[in-house]
Amino acid sequence: MIEIKNLSKIYKDEFLYRNFNCAFEENKVNVILGSSGSGKTTLFRMMLGLEKYEAGQILGFNHKKIAVVFQEDRLVEWMNVYDNVAFVLKSSVEKQEMDKLINKALELVELIDYVNYSVKDLSGGMQRRVVLARAIVCRDSILFMDEPFKGLDDELRLRIITRLKVHWRENRTTVFLITHSQQEGMLLGDIIYKLAEKPVKFYKI
């Protein structure tokens, strides 16, 4: 169980979170739903240890590997699609197994025909799919994703979401998905938490 206990965070001289408590289930897709400015990304960053908070505890991440999809793509522009995805595997996987994992991930995001393309030659939406493929191949126990489907057209987004749901269930991945889209939340989430009010409160949907 991953728990947040009595968390308080001040932002612009007022409490964004105050004595905030929540428990998340492992091996589930936990969706954190909220509008722009509701505190989703701040919570994400606090859980990852990237942002300080005034009081409280965030428990359950010790000795666990974590993969992250930020809002920014953070690709290596001088590498091709294959090497960008392989970047997260090189120290832990043999070449044959790496090829298998990467091909499967690129097929899932419909980029298998672009495996040797330089990422700087891809559209913004295609670059985002490279980021998703990189997250898919990670064998980490916890995956954080902040607005991961931005820039994708509706039909493609729905196809990828459908495949990801199956992939995560098969691999028993613990996912924290931050989104403003209720549709994405309803399609992907095993458990949906909606942020509301200030200081922030969670409502389970």
Automatic annotation (TrEMBL):
Signal peptide: none annotated. It holds the Pfam family ABC_tran. It comes from Zhenhengia yiwuensis. SUPFAM superfamilies: P-loop containing nucleoside triphosphate hydrolases (SSF52540). Residues 2-205 form the ABC transporter domain. SMART domains: AAA. InterPro entries: AAA+_ATPase (IPR003593), ABC_SmlMolc_Importer (IPR050093), ABC_transporter-like_ATP-bd (IPR003439), ABC_transporter-like_CS (IPR017871), P-loop_NTPase (IPR027417). Keywords: ATP-binding, Nucleotide-binding, Transport. One of its GO terms (molecular function) is ATP hydrolysis activity. PANTHER family: BICARBONATE TRANSPORT ATP-BINDING PROTEIN CMPC, SPERMIDINE/PUTRESCINE IMPORT ATP-BINDING PROTEIN POTA. This is ABC transporter ATP-binding protein.
